[in-house]
Write a structure and sequence with these properties.
Elements lengths: L6 E3 L10 H7 L8 E3 L9 H5 L4 H12 L7 H12 L10 E5 L4 E5 L9 H20 L11 E6 L3 H10 L5 E8 L5 H8 L6 E6 L3 H13 L1 H7 L1 E2 L6 H22 L6 E6 L4 H12 L3 E8 L4 H8 L1 E3 L26 H12 L4 H18 L1 E3 L2 H8 L2 E5 L2 H14 L7 H11 L7 E6 L7 H8 L7 H4 L2 H6 L7 E3 L4 H14 L5
Parallel strand pairs: 4-14, 5-6, 5-8, 6-7, 7-15, 9-10, 9-14, 10-13
Antiparallel strand pairs: 1-2, 3-4, 11-12
The structure holds pyridoxal-5'-phosphate.
The site of pyridoxal-5'-phosphate has 17 residues, from helix 11.
């Protein structure tokens, strides 16, 4: 096994290192840290020549192989997992690149061609298959009366991530998934996307309460040692290493596509990424450190701008200066409405390791100290050397709702009809502020516009030729005619949820 195929925690970076399987199944490290590879794989000089004509799937295989030992998943098995994961995408390129403005060297990387029309599918389709693969292997050879290894995935959603997780895990053997959403507080399309999945292992709970109630209940279930052990709770949240890994592929793939589109071997590319939990852009950081010649990675935030403030000050602080409470601002790009960005810890580890410490252990101690400080005081200030080093690779911006709407309109007009979603518009706005005709800008398009109809309507209502109905894919129009499966939880109460989970597991035929 190479070092890049073994994993350590950002908070206790000592050996023994973990396998990929343990890393993926555990999600979060016991120390509260996040798993990172013991080394970032660096590419041979001839990788460009070797990889530039590969399909998305073949490229994914090359990249994943650097971080997964064949002794854990054989080459044939990994190829099969990848093929299955991306067979659900509607575009042959999986993540195609669109030209927005050739003259000003501005491109859009469309990440929304998966089953739920959002970028999280790229990772969660793969993660679902991985879970199933690991469990099947643990259960191989077991008889009918043996206890099977299983996973009960529990999560809360304000709308967007729930459906991607459900589509990733639907119909997977030995996995059940329970997704809690606040009743009547998610958009109709998002509600339908979740509740029309009627597979036996998928359970939607509509909780009478708000999103915070749902999240608190999920947290308390994970803290409930007895319940957790009994049902082997699992999470598919964005801190899982497999999700980051799966997202590295499209940085390479889009770079190669650009080389071909421009017929040039000499481009200076900047990726602009609408950012919430810092997972998507972190994958770009790994790509860059592996050797992909990315000039800069640009964080685009909405009013929840903790990362933008960090890059401008070196202070990582939960509270927004404009607010008097530690509250999330509700914006038109809700999937980026966060107070802190959980994956940012991983980047801080690399910066601390390179700027401040002479060992992994020491870097882990810095992270431990900073994260405790963040938790207790709500903020942490990093040394100037850390900020300066980060700014060599990153830049940032924050975009208001008004600007988001303006940009959806401007792009519609400029392109004669191309519609972007509000998350994408945050990245596009950030790009438009910077286009210089010299650097090539690739903005990541993270969702299909039909998922966020309110913002799109707000921007385009009254335009000639515009009708939201035309934006809706047929698959969305059909949702309301499909049967639904959802359990209403009458009160935001942990015990009610526990009882409902056990009841529905029994209904699934699971013995515990
Ligand atoms: C999750 C999400 C994001 C933010 O991605 P992170 O990895 O959390 O930074 C942006 N746009 C959409 C549509 C999303 O669903």
């Amino acid at each position: 096994m190479t070092l890049s195929q073994q994993y350590l925690s950002t908070r206790s970076s000592s050996e023994p290192y973990l396998s990929f399987e343990a890393t993926v199944l555990r999600g979060l490290a016991p120390s509260g840290g996040l798993f990172i590879p013991a080394e970032i794989a660096s590419l041979q000089d001839d990788y460009l020549e070797k990889w530039k004509d590969l399909s998305f799937q073949d490229l994914a295989f090359e990249i994943f192989s650097l971080y997964i030992s064949p002794s854990e998943i054989s080459a044939a098995e990994l190829k099969q997992l990848i093929a299955r994961s991306y067979s659900t995408f509607r575009d042959d390129a999986v993540t195609p690149l669109t030209v927005l403005d050739e003259q000003r060297k501005f491109y859009l990387l469309e990440l929304f061609h998966g089953p739920t029309y959002a970028f999280k599918d790229v990772a969660l389709q793969f993660v679902g298959n991985l879970f199933e693969f690991f469990l099947q292997r643990k259960n191989a050879g077991k008889g009918e009366n043996d206890i099977r290894d299983r996973l009960t995935v529990v999560g809360a959603t304000s709308g967007d991530t729930g459906s991607a997780a459900i589509y990733g895990l639907r119909n997977k053997k030995d996995v059940s998934i329970f997704i809690l959403h606040p009743l009547d507080k998610v958009s109709p399309i998002q509600e339908l996307q979740m509740t029309t999945v009627t597979d036996a292992n998928v359970h939607n709970f509509a909780v009478k309460g708000n999103f915070d109630n749902c999240q608190d209940i999920v947290k308390s279930l994970f803290d409930d040692v007895e319940f957790n052990q009994k049902h082997h709770l699992g999470a598919v949240n964005s801190i899982n290493w497999a999700r980051i890994l799966a997202q590295i592929t499209y940085y390479f793939y889009s770079y190669f596509t650009l080389l071909k589109k421009t017929g040039s071997g000499n481009i200076s590319v900047r990726y602009v990424v609408p950012t919430g939990n810092f997972g998507d852009i972190l994958a770009g950081f790994y790509a860059k450190r592996m050797g992909l010649p990315i000039d800069k990675l640009i964080v685009a935030t909405n009013a929840n701008d903790i990362l933008d403030r960090f890059w401008k000050s070196g202070i990582y602080e939960m509270k927004r200066p404009s607010s008097d409470a530690d509250a999330v601002a509700e914006t038109l790009s809700p999937a980026m409405d966060i107070l802190i960005s959980s994956n940012f810890e991983r980047l801080l580890w690399y910066l601390a390791r390179e700027q401040l410490s002479s060992s992994n252990e020491e870097a882990g101690q810095y992270i431990q100290k900073w994260m405790i400080e963040l938790k207790t005081t709500g903020k942490v200030t990093v040394p100037q050397s850390v900020l300066d080093a980060g700014l060599k690779e990153f830049a940032s911006d924050s975009v208001s709702d008004e600007q988001t709407v303006e940009t959806i309109k401007a792009i519609y007009e400029f392109t004669s009809g191309y519609i972007i979603d509000p998350h994408t518009a945050v990245g596009v706005t950030t790009s438009l502020r910077r286009l210089d005709g010299h650097h090539t800008y690739v903005a990541l398009s993270t969702a299909h516009p039909a998922k966020f109809g309110d913002a799109v309507d707000q921007a385009l209502k009254g335009k000639d030729e515009y009708s939201f109905d035309d934006v809706l894919p047929d698959a969305f129009k059909a949702l309301k005619y499909l049967p639904k499966k959802v359990t209403v939880i009458e009160k935001a109460d942990k015990e009610l949820v526990k009882a409902a989970i056990e009841q529905e597991l029994k209904d699934e035929g699971i013995v515990f």
